[in-house]
């Protein structure tokens, strides 16, 4: 029989025995290590390992924060790029010559072309002493315009001109461009030359080209001479006259260019002071007060001396003479270039000469009232300017284009000057225009209204005639025989006349009438008058209203030769034989 079962033991391998021994050894070391001197070092090592692990986590967080900061880096980069772009040009190694040209337009519409040329010179200490080292050479190029002379050219400026002046075409056949036209542009170019050399304000383009033509015209039939000017219209606000206008608008005489006098002037006729006299006297007093002070510079003393003398002369003019008023009088301004040529040229206009101003389809009468600059043409009074264009002011011209025609009649000035008579000016200009062909059909000379005309008194209302009362013939005869009469006026606006025959008792004769006299007032009057003879036919009593304000008076009644008069309560009645 088999042997009884016995558990068999497995054989351990070499590797398992080794692991078992290592485990036991580690356990033994773990139990004995805390009691050895290495226990503190082991503890510190473990703490370092833990601290190292913690620091690793914090670095991860720090990296996240750095990512947030990195988002702002592009802004910093933009600033850095701007700095990098500022690159300075390289410094020159030697002198480099320059020739540059620039073209611009000044405020006065003059085209300016500048050319800068440099060249190498000597030492600065020597060049500053040489006037040729630093200089400017000006060359201004100007095209001087030619004058138009044909009807076609004149019509280009104003298409209505041939129709307004039908005699113009006949005069143009022998017309001549006036020497004043060439003299005007000589004056203009001379002024530009002077201003350019001294670097003053040069005459602008607008004022240089302000005249289209100046023509000397003579009508072939009447031989009437006329000077035709085509230009613009600037505004003058000068002049003052205490006789006609004792006050003056402040905005006018405060203008920078205002002058209180005009070349056309006449002797003062009233004692009314000039509106500017008080202001000029105040200026004189202040100037004299300053001049009396000590310590002023010689230049200021000279300036005050000239000012005082000028103010005294002007104050004397204020007291002795009157001038045109630009705000109220229609006149034009002629250039000073005309003055002094009257003996040489028969077409020379003078102060006081009559003129016609043509703009668009209208023609205005005027006179030559003042002188203007010798290098300028085309100027009229403020009244004329506002009539041409209501928007005109002392600072705004009514017409900037060369569309205004000034037709001046030289040699027509009156011998004695006086205050403007607009009706006379109208008549004279109308007659002079008739001598050069007249005014065309459909056009009429403008009529100026008198700005100083006194208003007419209102018309007196007409009073309605009072009713007429007729006296019977018998009653008239009885009254004539009686020889006495009594009149009574009642307050009701009626008048009653009664006569009784006192000489023949029992034969009374009565004269009665009740004409309605509205508003006669309360009054009563009685009277007795002899009647020299009998009256035949009816007698008419006509009431007559006395002047307003006359006191009511008692009246008397008269009868004679068939006529009787009765006054009662200021009302007069007449009886006439019919």
Can you walk through the features of this model?
The chain has 15 helices and 19 strands. The protein is an alpha+beta fold and 578 residues long. The strands form five sheets. A six-stranded mixed barrel has the order 5-11-8-10-9-12. A five-stranded antiparallel β-sheet has the order 13-16-19-18-17. A hairpin with a 6-residue loop joins β4 and β5. The protein starts with 13 loop residues before the first helix and ends with a strand.
Summed over residues and divided by their number, the pLDDT gives a mean of 77
State the shape: elongated
N/C terminus separation: 212 Å
Please work out how many helical segments DSSP would assign. 15
Q: If you compute it from the alpha carbons, what radius of gyration comes out, rounded to the nearest whole angstrom?
A: 58 Å
Helix proportion: 25-40%
The oligomeric state of the chains shown is: single chain
Largest sheet: 6 strands, mixed, barrel
Approximate strand percentage: 15-25%
Unreliable stretches: 483-578
> Count the strands?
19
Task: Describe what is shown at a glance.
This protein is an alpha+beta fold and 578 residues long.
Overview features:
five-stranded antiparallel beta sheet; six-stranded mixed barrel; 19% strand; alpha+beta; 578 residues; single chain; disordered C terminus
Q: What is the topology?
A:
Blueprint: H1 14-32, H2 39-70, H3 73-85, E1 99-105, E2 111-117, H4 124-127, H5 151-157, H6 161-164, H7 168-172, E3 176-177, H8 179-197, H9 205-208, E4 211-218, E5 225-236, H10 250-253, E6 265-267, H11 277-291, H12 298-320, E7 321-323, E8 331-335, E9 354-359, E10 362-372, E11 379-381, H13 382-388, E12 399-409, H14 422-434, E13 469-471, H15 473-482, E14 486-489, E15 495-498, E16 539-544, E17 558-560, E18 563-568, E19 571-577
Parallel strand pairs: 5-11, 8-10
Antiparallel strand pairs: 1-2, 3-4, 4-5, 5-12, 6-7, 8-11, 9-10, 9-12, 13-16, 14-15, 16-19, 17-18, 18-19
